[in-house]
Amino acid sequence: MIDQKKYKIIFLNQVAGPLFRELAEDLAKVWPQSILLTGNPDTICCDVDSLLHIEPAPEYNRSSYFSRFVSWVKYFFKPLWFVWKQSRDSTLFIVSNPPFLGLVGLFFKYVRRQRYVVLVYDIYPDMLIGLGRLKRGVISGCWDYFNRLVYENAAQMITIAHDMRMRLEHKFDVFKTDGKKIVCISPWADIEVIKPVNKKQNWFAAKYDLLDKTTVLYSGNMGHSHDIETILETAKKLRREAGINFLFIGEGAKWSLVEKTIEEFQLKNVTLLPFQPEEVLPLSMASRYWNCHL
Fold first, then answer.
1. CB-based contacts of 145: which residues, under 8 Å, 6+ apart?
2. What are the residue ranges spanned by the domains of the chain?
């Protein structure tokens, strides 16, 4: 049921994980009360600061291109209806997943002059074009056009890397935004949570036979844009090195590639696991010697 109280910030992120939740909690302390609409089951079930409310939304389904699109559409209409019922004084904090979610902000900016902020994690359609999934043409041109409208009408544009900021600066007129610049906020880690743990005291490392091995860890999304192949090729070349293990944790389009490679080449030095509960993350991170991706 939709809460009718007035929220200072409405966060829209279908896959909000620990980092984004921490960001939302910290901002909610400055601008209470605020709310996060997410489909991430771990975040929905997590105990959060009382100043940040969590509103469950449709979950992101990575199992196929069709399921991804359907889950994107389902999520898109949830905040559209939710925000419509809220005060126009609320600021919308929108991320780039789903990739067309910025249209929610643009709609409310045009209809009732509502302010919104955009955080870009992935640059569409550039990523799809780079992966060969989309050719430059009418579709990409329309996509760029609507992105430009979304970005230029934002109160503030944010991204996570300096290279992405420079790329975005060529896609729209930054000076049309209220902030007049793109702010870069790099991903971070809570060093009180993610810290070294003695392997002999790490039950996760013991469970997966990592105690006496050098572990190369890949932890995160295994999407089309992630270079899983290079890691797998390295694992194949080092298959006879008993002291080296490759640990993959996550999910995504290339999960099946890892699974198939393990089976086809009988790789005893590769362990494949789904995303682990958030409380396991400090132990899984502490079990590695090299971290390829998070």
1. none
2. 9-184, 199-293
